[in-house]
């Protein structure tokens, strides 16, 4: 069984499309990795696989091995010993603060998606339910993840064949301890919340633990000034979480700099005085020169994004919930 070395499996769900499940999954994965955990991301949105684009590995191909597929690497781990060496060198002495080493350690990140198996990126996947179900089961049984702390599963919207097959296969193939639960993603609008409520009911009917609700697109970070405006209102996700007695993890604004990071691979840079959720964003010394903005891995550039501190707090809540 390919899941036997995976410690925790978490689903990212929403009853509505376009709420940013893949964006949330990507940032959860990057943040978990930055906190030192080894992470895998499985994209089971078969008709709209976007995870390869988010991680900048669209042109990668999955390799076959005896027993299944080898997932595509996004970045490798940075071992704690290496982090300590770097910190000691920076300090100019033999003493290394544990907090510095901990913040520098990074876990590996790998992903698997149907997008890697298509001949052309623009090919449409026109499949009936039984073929989708078979593909989901194959993804869960034939991908050789190896040892993982967390496997995040990005799902399509709704409660359709993929979801039912996913839950049934996890119940059969994974232990109860491995099944961490689900993160529910919504936007503040009432129409989105009404659809997401159905997803919560789906989780309760199928016995999937709800780890928390994330309200996405709750505000807009202007790239030209220091304002964050609540374009789609704010607070609907928290009200829904309270109504259903599930944890509310936090609100996430739209940040064009994150979109720029994904689309162009450039490090986020903010005008002086930008404040997001009470936190002042710094330019981090990367405002001058294209080479500085483009240098480094995706996970390194993400630490300059205004959304990283928000997800850092949410992931700590999730880890505390999963590993009490």
Q: What would your notes on this structure say?
A:
With 324 residues, the protein is α/β, with parallel strands linked by helices. The protein has a single domain (6-322), classed as P-loop containing nucleotide triphosphate hydrolases (Rossmann fold). Helices cover 38% and strands 21% of the residues. The protein has twelve helices and 13 strands. It has helices at residues 21-34, 51-54, 80-91, 98-104, 129-142, 161-173, 190-206, 236-243, 256-264, 290-294, 298-302, 307-322, and strands spanning 6-13, 39-43, 63-65, 68-70, 72-75, 109-113, 148-154, 179-186, 210-221, 228-229, 248-254, 275-276, 279-280. The strands form three sheets. Strands 1, 2, 5, 6, 7, 8, 9, 10 and 11 form a nine-stranded mixed sheet that branches. Strand 3 and strand 4 (68-70) form a beta hairpin. Helix 1 (21-34) crosses helix 12 (307-322) and helix 5 (129-142) packs parallel to helix 6 (161-173). The chain is globular and about 55 Å long. The model is unreliable at 86-103 (pLDDT under 50).
* Largest sheet geometry: 9 strands, mixed
Q: What's the β-strand tally?
A: 13
Q: Given the helix and strand composition, which structural class is it?
A: alpha/beta
Could you name the CATH class? Alpha Beta
Tally of individual helices: 12
Distance between the termini: 27 Å
CATH fourth-tier homologous superfamily: P-loop containing nucleotide triphosphate hydrolases
Helix fraction by DSSP (H/I, runs of at least 4): 25-40%
Number of domains: 1
Q: Give the CATH architecture.
A: 3-Layer(aba) Sandwich
Q: H/E series, N to C?
A: EHEHEEEHHEHEHEHEEHEHEEHHH
- Percent of residues in beta strands: 15-25%
Q: What does the overall shape look like?
A: globular
């Amino acid at each position: 069984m390919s899941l036997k070395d995976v410690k925790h499996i978490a689903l990212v769900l929403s009853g509505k499309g376009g709420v940013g499940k893949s964006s949330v999954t990507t940032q959860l994965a990057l943040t978990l990795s930055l906190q030192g955990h080894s992470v895998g991301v499985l994209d089971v949105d078969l008709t709209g696989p976007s995870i390869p684009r988010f991680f900048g590995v669209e042109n990668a191909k999955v390799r076959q091995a005896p027993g299944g597929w080898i997932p595509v690497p996004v970045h490798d781990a940075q071992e704690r010993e290496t982090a300590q060496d770097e910190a000691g060198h920076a300090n100019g002495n033999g003493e290394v603060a544990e907090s510095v080493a901990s913040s520098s350690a990074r876990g590996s990140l790998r992903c698997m998606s149907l997008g890697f198996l298509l001949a052309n990126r623009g090919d449409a996947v026109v499949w009936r339910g039984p073929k989708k179900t078979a593909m989901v089961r194959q993804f869960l049984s034939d991908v050789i993840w190896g040892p993982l702390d967390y496997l995040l599963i990005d799902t399509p919207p709704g409660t359709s064949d993929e979801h039912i097959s996913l839950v049934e296969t996890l119940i059969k193939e994974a232990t109860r301890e491995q099944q961490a639960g689900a993160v529910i993603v919504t936007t503040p609008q009432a129409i989105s919340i009404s659809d997401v409520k159905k997803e919560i009911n789906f989780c309760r009917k199928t016995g999937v633990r709800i780890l928390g609700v994330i309200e996405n697109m709750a505000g807009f970070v202007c790239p030209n000034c220091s304002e964050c405006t609540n374009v789609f209102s704010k607070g609907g996700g928290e009200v829904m979480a309270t109504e259903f007695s599930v944890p509310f993890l936090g609100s996430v604004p739209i940040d064009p700099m994150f979109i720029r990071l994904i689309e162009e691979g450039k490090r986020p840079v903010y005008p002086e005085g930008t404040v997001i959720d009470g936190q002042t964003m710094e330019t981090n010394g990367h405002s001058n020169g294209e080479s500085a903005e483009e240098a480094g891995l995706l996970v390194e550039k993400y630490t300059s994004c205004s959304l990283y501190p928000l997800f850092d707090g949410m992931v700590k809540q999730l880890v505390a919930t999963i590993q009490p």
